[in-house]
Amino acid sequence: MAFGNFQREERKSITPGDYRVVIVDAEQTVSKTSGKDMLVITVQPNGSDIKIKQYIVDNQYFNQNMTQFFDSFNVPFGDFNLPTWKGAIGAARLVLDENEYLRVKFFIHRDKQGALPPWEGQLPERQAVTTLGAPVEDDELPFD
Q1: Which residues neighbour 36 within 8 Å (Cβ) at sequence distance 6 or greater?
Q2: What does DSSP say about strands 52-57 and 37-45: parallel, antiparallel, or unpaired?
Q3: Average pLDDT over residues 67-90
Q4: pTM (2 decimals)?
């Protein structure tokens, strides 16, 4: 086996700080530690290929954390239609955890994002979910 095309390539890293982020995934699941419902929101900082998961558990801080989320991203307050969150741009303060991995400390309010650099590259496109009309009754189908 030959690896003649190997070239050195460093992974682009980012330092802790405030960044514009885009939601690349959002799902509802159950916490393995508490057994409570939770949201897992995966964000990607602007100008990087790093994906960071933010866990929002249905506990005493849920309303506070979700208010912070809705205030940061252009998602209508109280809209839990998770597929439509993909592509939403907000901002977050990123810090290093005890294992030296980046994590979201908090989402930054939309009114305080003005000092952040503009989005680099092509703006992500928000995912739209369309619904079909009312189901057609079998006797109304145009074929036998």
Answers
A1: 30, 57, 58, 59
A2: antiparallel
A3: 95
A4: 0.81
